[in-house]
Amino acid sequence: MDDLIIEFLTETNESLMELDTDLIKLEQNPNDKDLISKIFRLMHTIKGTCGFLGLPRLETVAHRAENVMGRFRDGDLEVTAEYVSLILESLDRVRYLLGHIEEHGTEPEGNDTDLTTRLDAVYEGRDAFQTGQTTPGPVELPEEDPVEIAAHDPLADIFDTIEVSAPVSAQISPPAAIEPSHQPVAAAPPQTKEATESAVANQSLRVNMDVLENLMTMVSELVLTRNQLLQISRTEKENSFITPLQRLNHVVSDLQEGVMKTRMQPIGNAWAKLPRIIRDLSIELGKKIDLIMIGQDTELDRQVLDMIKDPLTHMVRNSGDHGIEVPAERVKAGKPETGKIHLRAYHEGGHIIIEIADDGKGLPTEKIRQKLVSNGLVTEEESKKLSPQQIHQYIFHAGLSTAEKVTSVSGRGVGMGVVRTNIEKIGGSIEMKSIEGKGSTFFIKIPLTLAIVSSLIVESAGERFAIPQLAVRELVLVSQKSENRIEMIKNTPVFRLREKLLPLVSLEDLLKIGQHSGENFEDRFEHKYIIVTQVGNYSFGLIVDQVFDTEEIVVKPVAKILKNIELFSGNTILGDGSVIMILDPGGIAKVTGENNLTDAAQDEQAAAEKLVSDKKTSLLVFTAGQGSPKAVPLSLISRLENIDMNTVEETDGQMLVQYRGALMPIIPFSDQMDLSKDKMKPLLVFADRGKSVGLIVDEIVDIREEIIDIQLDGKRKGVFGSAIISGKASEIVDVMHFLNSVHGDWFKDHGDDPFLASDKAKREGKSGTKRILLVDDSPFFRNMLCPLLTAAGYEVIAVDGPSKALELTERDENFDLIISDIEMPDMNGYDFATRVRASEKWQNTPMVALTSHATPEDIDHGYESGFDEYIAKFDRDTLLSTISKTLSRGADA
Amino acid sequence: MSQNVQEQHHMSKNPQHVVTGKTKDFLTIVIEGQLFGIPILQVQDVLGELKVTKIPLAPPQVSGSLNLRGRIVTAIDVRKCLGLPPMERGEDEKLMSVVVNHDDELYSLIIDNVGDVLTLHEKDFEANPATLDIIWKSVSLGVYRLQGKILVVLDVPKLLLALHPAH
């Protein structure tokens, strides 16, 4: 049979089955509008599909029935008990026709004029009931209807063979006026259909949730038993069980996966209510809101689904209520009247990410700040130090609502805190970003399933514990004799993790196991592991003695008498059969004093760390001639080579070497170097578009990540100045000086055409050099980039800050492109971009942000502020290509 | 050594030991020389030595948890519940426990020794002596006079309820 028809049959049968239960209600309440509409829609769908599939008889019935249902639905015809039977009869006829199609692939012979005439009569308002000429029609129907008699035939066959059942069936036929038409048909066709139905229509099946849960539990047990068996077989190398065990292993894995699948449901099920909520909300609040849902098919565990249903509803409602503005306000802000809420779900590495984004007004940072102060959550002083992001985090704090007044929808200030708690309860996390005036986006990250959790097995004081891997960020082995050591503040252990203090919790102390009286901490914390654990934004380290492997464990609840121990989320049986407690990172965080203020402090610390790491640069440290070590940003070097000094030739005072089939000019870093023949020397190759320059040095020492803090010192050419690198004063090399020392001559020989110019710049070289404004507070970068950009054929004006740059506007300066740093002391790059966009002169000048601060949020912020491009410092190729791309785009525009 | 005495009897919810009949069956156990009886229908299993995992921060009466055929069972030290000192165990003596079902959870009661199953007559039953130790009184349903011995009927649900955090 045609796939299309099979699909149609399955769907229609499902709809009919659903209707079956409702039909009982129809009898009690004939004017049930919802149900009438449902039948109307079904008939409508059948009509439409049949026309397409070429099933004229079914189409006619459906079409006529739809007409009548339409009248009922519109309310211009009251549904009486008589009509109910007509509806039921139509449904039964549809059912009969479907059954026949299923069995034989075609519609049965004959026609349905008996039914359609009556339907038409009702539709046209000339039927008996309406005109008042009541006839006992329905009662006679079974006899009148040839189709139904046909439908009875198989039943008659059954009567022949199963005599006992015959009288019973006969007794069912009740004398009621309605039922004769309904009962026999409803009873008979399903019986005849059963065999075929199971083959075609019933490809999906409703199973009681308990059955599935039970199955899941048993599979979990099976998994555990399998683990035990595998463990045993591992210790006994030679045994005949290995092969069957491996098979068992595979089968169990497949089974587990299969059973897990039965628990999976599309997230769309949790979203089903949302369009309605948004619709009601927009009416209530007089807003225009579009809800766009993407990824409804994304599947996740039913249990997880249940847990996130309410938080999701709450958040979408919040977006509509707090986020989206009323149309007038939106128009004023230059946005379309209709606000949009995007709901997206997708998989990402064992997690589901749900995004809720609105293009509304965003979080009012200042208002929240004031609220924080007025609620006494932070002091006025503290609040000023908080970044907008930190302030936004407080919306997850109970007792805070940004809505000015409490509506029936939201604003009671309990919501987001509960949302976060619920999400964290299932091992998920929630993040948000919000830009005032542009909208907010929430990201919810949740695990796919809760039943089976991958856990790390650790040991403390001889006892083993499991800790869910989701919460584990990293593991650190500490030794009191090395750099990685635990330090004490009073009796609190702490650990320096990448220049940040990590609070530590000793699992032994926490669980009050093991004895350590009188032992000094140096001995105690010798050779321990720190499990860096993260709960929400709070990170802490758990000190344990030993770390074993990870295991997939089935979480079982702890006995009721142990429920009050917050530190455990459950227990389980390991592969070796022993019982083990599962630690609850959230509980540990709670017991060890996590609260929102430490959150903020942590954030601040993180932010500070980020700022510092911004300025870190990978440097190649080398020696050349006398004096201190030299350093050059690694990103500028394209290759490191060793050259044989014998191969160096000299032409016109310029040292050259044949390199990759071309002549490459090479320069000794210093004239004090020993350049005698028969020596191998390291060569730093700086290459650009097929042309290269080599720099001879004495020895390559190291590659370091350092913060370059140049004490400017222009005494020597080729050196920007000195900086402290790995504890030694080192000279930072001005690469451009060396490039220019070779290519500067080149420029002279070849007129104005710059040797290093990019193709684009070359083409435009004649029509006028492009002017670029470079804004960066760091002399290092200015010194680095000016020559680079100049060499690439641009005219570069460099200033050390946005205020200087803005002064240039007043002096009628014009630029083709502005490149700006983000982190600058007097005004940051975002504000600068906003100011530029607001200015009359430069509002159309393309702007490129240049920074290593490149989290997606920063980038978004950058774009919001008016930057056209956002690129990383030191990425030369991208910088040059972005510049030429942006310029050409600007030229086209 | 694990003998299955009674499988899947959820009688513990209604632990009335005196029923309409004249006799009742008890599993006898010995703690500190004293004979105790547990209504047989409450008993799921009798266990010998099993590996018990300690549960940190749990009440002192909880010895830990153990794995009984894939189910996690909480082990309770009955001596501690009765305010008795820990038992001095010889080299060969094994830890014995009786597994009971309470509120759909399994508990393993660690006791000194397990004896026979006795069928006792109602006529031998008596209420707790008024002067009985207050702790014992709280977990005893009454006593049976046996030949030469007294058997105390252990009220298992009460014993376990006393451990619940709410109490």
What key phrases describe this protein's structure?
heterodimer; A: about 900 residues; alpha+beta; Four Helix Bundle (Hemerythrin (Met), subunit A); Heat Shock Protein 90; six-stranded mixed sheet; about 45% helix; about 25% strand; B: about 170 residues; OB fold (Dihydrolipoamide Acetyltransferase, E2P); 3 helices; globular
Describe, in plain words, how this protein is organized in 3D.
The complex is a heterodimer of chains A (893) and B (167). Chain A is α+β, with helices and mostly antiparallel strands and 893 residues long. Chain A folds into six domains: 197 residues, Up-down Bundle (Four Helix Bundle (Hemerythrin (Met), subunit A)); 56 residues; 180 residues, Heat Shock Protein 90; 154 residues, Beta Barrel (OB fold (Dihydrolipoamide Acetyltransferase, E2P)); 128 residues, OB fold (Dihydrolipoamide Acetyltransferase, E2P) (Beta Barrel), CATH 2.40.50; 136 residues, Response regulator (Rossmann fold), CATH 3.40.50.2300. Chain A contains 31 helices and 35 strands. In chain A, the strands form seven sheets. Chain A has a six-stranded mixed beta sheet with strand order 10-14-15-13-12-11. Chain A has a six-stranded mixed beta sheet with strand order 27-19-20-30-29-28. Chain A has a six-stranded mixed beta sheet with strand order 21-25-26-24-23-22, with helices on one face. In chain A, α3 runs antiparallel to α4 and α14 runs parallel beside α15. The longest helix of chain A has 27 residues. Chain A is globular. Chain B has one domain: OB fold (Dihydrolipoamide Acetyltransferase, E2P) (Beta Barrel), CATH 2.40.50. Chain B is built from three helices and twelve strands; from the N terminus they run ββββββαββββαββα. Chain B has a six-stranded mixed beta sheet with strand order 1-4-7-8-6-5. Chain B has a six-stranded mixed beta sheet with strand order 9-2-3-12-11-10. At the A-B interface, α11, β17 and β18 of A face β5 of B.
